[in-house]
Every structure is written in structure tokens, then in C-alpha cells.
């Protein structure tokens, strides 16, 4: 039976069983489309990276003898719409069956469900064979439970997959070494430069220019630095094991004016496009550690494994358990617009300036910059979660909705009322100062709440607690913060709220 197989841009899993089957009857298809470049304004490096990786993948398939139809963005036959492109190929090749891998995003899932419902030929959907868990495993795991705690799921994942387990107990005697992951980086350890790949993307840059694709961020060289194929992804992973794992956990939450990624792996782009699997990553890290890692403490390894089999699988499971309603939640009723400086980095607030500039220049920021700087400010300034989502979905090379949305709307903005985070991740300057050197060279004074040079995070923080008290009063993890608020002098609180109001009304003046 002549069968068409669709490969989406984030389904570049070379190890998929599809490519092992007898190939004569299969036509594969891949499309660069405006439908995908335009549904949100993406970072220029994100579009370049997706197209570069797709083209590389298509070359590998073709070189191995697979029959592939690849539509470049400016191909004449390209309708720029997934369904219309599929119809063209189905007709041209007299296709008798249509097969696809389950999309990562709800949007595309719906599009294909509607299409296949009316299609006159048989259809089959396949797993992407990438994740440890299937789409609804987490939903079933938490069935009839009140709380969907990541830690509960993570421990189960460790046991099920026998990862860092000895005699049914956690290796090292603890499930979680999070408390040892909170050091400030003070130049104590040399940080190796991050690994860059010199992928020539001149053609793609030209194409995006000619087709007037709207984008954000900058792209200064003509080479794309992140891995675009499996070989490069494995190289990046090896580099991480040999150079960065040793301090990954220690400095996981640290931030520094001179450091873009500290000991982070920068593997998210490769993982999310499925160039490598999470199992690949976990097995490689564990093998390396058991074989060569006598100087690497378990807290570094556990801290990293938790991100992959814990947070990453958990976020995907939550996405599929809670969509589509999840994308409209706004539990704290936030309504403000995103400040203009999120698109330029033009602000006197040093922490935001660094986190945003890093994002604009590299399509990258590490987790704590996303959570405790840009995310923290957006929540304190009471920005509408739709605007926050849109920014996060566009700005990062690794942003795909299944992972971006629960991280942003849930973990960072608490717009789901606490389904993912057990309390809002908000802080005044004290946390940012504890984890970084940003405050040392900032225009603002980290210790002041009032006055022209007082750090804006401070007044916004107390104002947030006061404004959102009703919505958060039942949260037992907020008790200490509210009791501190209660102890505050009432006249001072009025003044703090006035300053917070001024900041929220015109954040671009700060
Ligand atoms: P490392 O710190 O080296 O971690 C290793 C890997 O663990 C990452 O590559 C990633 O695959 C996984 N991981 C770590 N934390 C998380 C997490 N919270 N959720 C899911 N996976 C995780 N990650 C994305 O991949 N895409 C996004 O669009 C995205 N948006 C985010 C938005 C916000 C507001 C926040 C707070 C976090 C977001 N994250 C997102 C999670 C995390 O920040 C990135 O995965 C990480 O910064 C990628 O850099 P890295 O590869 O160097 O990660
Ligand atoms: Fe950020 Fe405030 Fe510190 Fe400045 S003083 S870097 S604005 S936290």
C-alpha cells in the first residue's frame, strides 16, 4: 500500500523504527511553512535552527535511499499550510494510506485530527519514540489525586527505569540533592567555554530575508551554534559530561554578568527537536559518571537527571493532562502589558538587562534567568499570562508549546493557581543578589524599598503579596511571607504600593 509519512520539524528522530522498515512503498514529507514561522514571532535563530536541522535530516534520509518530498519555504508547490501541502502530495503520489507521529503541540494535533477525520484513506498515528512516558501516563499516574507533585512522579520514574537506584533505594541515600544546588558562582571554578558548532546557514538567512519573515533577536554570525543533527548532539553531550557535569548541580541556580550559561548543558534545542532522546542523555551521563566520575559528586548527577526524567517528562505530561483549558488560565487575574524592554533589553534594572540581552543575542537563557528574573518580574508586575507566554514561546530556540506553556503559565506565572508550582516563584532583590552579582553593578539599590534608586523588585514584591493576598491566603507555603507583610508599618506599605503602581504603569521608565 503506497503510504505517506509526515515528519514535523521537531520530529527529527533518526532512531525511529519508521526508518528501519522496508521502504519501497513509503513516501516521506517535510515542509518549511509560514504556518509555522508566523504563528508567533520567533527568535531568528530559532527559525534558522529548525530549518537547518530539518534540511540536514532530509539529506540523511535521502542519502539512505528514502523517498522524501521536502518543500523549502519558497518552493512553488508550497502552499505554506500543512493540510494543503499534504493534499498535494497525496494526490500526486496516489497515496493509499497516511501515517504521522503524534505532534508535540495541541495546535498541530488538532489540525491533524480534523484532517484525518475527513480523509478518505486509512490513517495511523505513531509514537515519536522519544520520551520515557507516553502522553497520558502522568494523567493516569495522578488520577484521583489532589496534588500533581513533580517529586512524587520523579521518584516513581527513578524506580520504574531503575535510575540511580540501589537495592530499591535511592543511590547516595537521598532522592533529591536540591539543597546542595544553590551556590553563588564567585569565580571559584573555571568555566569552560560553551561548545559551538559552525553550521553554515547562509542560504537560510538569505531565504528568511527574501521572504520577509518577521522575527526577534539577533544573529550576528552566519553559522548556527547549536547542534543540528544527531552527531553534533552527541558531541555536545560528551562535552557536557567531560567539562560541565562536575559543577552542574552546584551552580545550577547561579547567575553572573560575565557568564551566559555557566555549567548548563545547552542540550534543550537538540532534545526538543528529538535529535537525541532523553534516554540517550541519561544513559550517557550515568555511564560517564560510573566509569570516569570519581571526582564528581552524586548531587551533580542527580541534579541533572532530575531535569531530564523529572521536570521534562512531568511538564509534557501536565501539558497533555490539562490542555486545552490550560492555555487560558489566569488565576491571579493579571492584566498588564509586557514592558517594551522585553524586546530590547533597554532597562536600568541590571538583572533584566542581562537576562533579556542574553535571550535576544543567543535565543537562550538558563533556567533561573527565565524563572527568577524575567518570569519573576512579569509576575510581580502583574502582566497578563497571554503576553508572557507569547514572549517565551518566541524568544528561545528550544521553545515548543508542550514545554514552554507549563513552565511559563504554570511554574513561572502561577496562572494555573498552583497545579505545577506549590507557590508563586516571586522574590525581591534579596534572592537575585544571593544567586548573582547583578546587583553589584546595578543602577538601583538592592536594599531599598523606597526612593528613586530603590530596586523596583522590592516594592513590586510587597505590593504583589498585598494585592494577591485573597487568592493566595490558603497556600500554607505563603504563610511566612504574609506574616512579614502583616508586620510592616502601614504608612510604609502605602508608600511602597504607590511606588509599585508607578512602576507598573510605566515599567519602561525604570
Ligand atoms: P540544563 O540546565 O542543562 O538542563 C538539562 C535539560 O533538562 C534541559 O536541556 C531540558 O531539556 C531539561 N529541563 C531542565 N529544566 C526543565 C524544565 N523546567 N522543564 C522542562 N525541561 C527542563 N525549556 C524548554 O526546553 N523549552 C522552553 O520553551 C522552556 N521555557 C521555559 C520558560 C520558563 C518561564 C521557565 C522557567 C523554564 C523554561 N524551560 C524551557 C525550562 C528550562 O529553562 C530550559 O529547558 C533550560 O534552560 C534549557 O537549557 P539547558 O539545555 O542548558 O538546560
Ligand atoms: Fe535587579 Fe534590583 Fe538587583 Fe538591580 S538591584 S540587579 S534591579 S534585583
Short description:
The chain is of the alpha/beta class and 510 residues long. The protein has helices spanning 34-38, 44-63, 82-92, 106-118, 137-141, 150-160, 202-210, 230-248, 268-272, 278-292, 298-322, 350-362, 367-380, 385-395, 401-412, 429-435, 456-467, 469-472, 479-487, 490-505; strands at residues 3-6, 26-31, 68-71, 97-101, 123-126, 165-166, 169-170, 199-200, 223-224.
Structure in words:
By secondary structure, this protein is of the alpha/beta class. It has helices at about 35-40, 45-65, 80-90, 105-120, 135-140, 150-160, 200-210, 230-250, 270, 280-290, 300-320, 350-360, 365-380, 385-395, 400-410, 430-435, 455-465, 470, 480-485, 490-505; strands spanning about 5, 25-30, 70, 95-100, 125, 165, 170, 200, 225. Helix 4 links the parallel strand 4 and strand 5. The longest helix is centred in the middle third of the chain and has 25 residues, at about 300-320. Iron/sulfur cluster binds near residues 438, 439, 444 and 455.
List keywords for this structure.
single chain; about 500 residues; alpha/beta; Rossmann fold; Serine Threonine Protein Phosphatase 5, Tetratricopeptide repeat; 3 domains; five-stranded parallel beta sheet; two-stranded antiparallel sheet; about 45% helix; binds flavin-adenine dinucleotide; binds iron/sulfur cluster
